[in-house]
């Protein structure tokens, strides 16, 4: 069989295998489907409030299935951000919920505050650390070094968050802690 015939036959073969195996195709979410809103409270973020706002903006520009919004008066936040003197870390209570401890230790060592905020928000959005890792990977965190200021998730990180929130209703809640 020539390669062009093989390429044309491949989709038919895949469909047949799925049918025989009892596979089921799943439709992608509608393009106009509403995004899940994760509210955040940065009132305890002290000098890092601006970095938290910028980190949320990075995620809001990067993904469509979830959006990070500041909590409004009388509303309970999904995500709480607190400044402390330790190393930055996230305590995840469920996908889209938890507490970020914005540790001053990493800032004192020279790490970029917006990268820290965006990285820790990545944990709240379901991403694990990728260490060691290159600067192009947001979830490489501090392993990329103090010269790394990239606060943007790469394509794989964006896709993982999009998938997690697209499947949110069918997944069970998990609890995890990430100490960066």
TrEMBL record:
InterPro entries: MetalloPept_cat_dom_sf, Peptidase_M7. Binds 1 zinc ion per subunit. It is found in: Secreted. Its cofactor is Zn(2+). GO terms for biological process: proteolysis. It is an enzyme of class 3 (hydrolase). The keyword Nucleotidyltransferase does not apply. Its main location: secreted. Disulfide bonds join 135-148. Residues 1-27 form the signal peptide. Zn(2+) binds at residues 119, 123, 129. The active site is at 120. Keywords: Disulfide bond, Hydrolase, Metal-binding, Metalloprotease, Protease, Secreted, Signal, Zinc. It catalyses: Hydrolyzes proteins with a preference for Tyr or Phe in the P1' position. Has no action on amino-acid p-nitroanilides. GO terms for cellular component: extracellular region. Belongs to the peptidase M7 family. This is Extracellular small neutral protease. It comes from Streptomyces himastatinicus ATCC 53653. The lineage of its organism: Bacteria, Bacillati, Actinomycetota, Actinomycetes, Kitasatosporales.
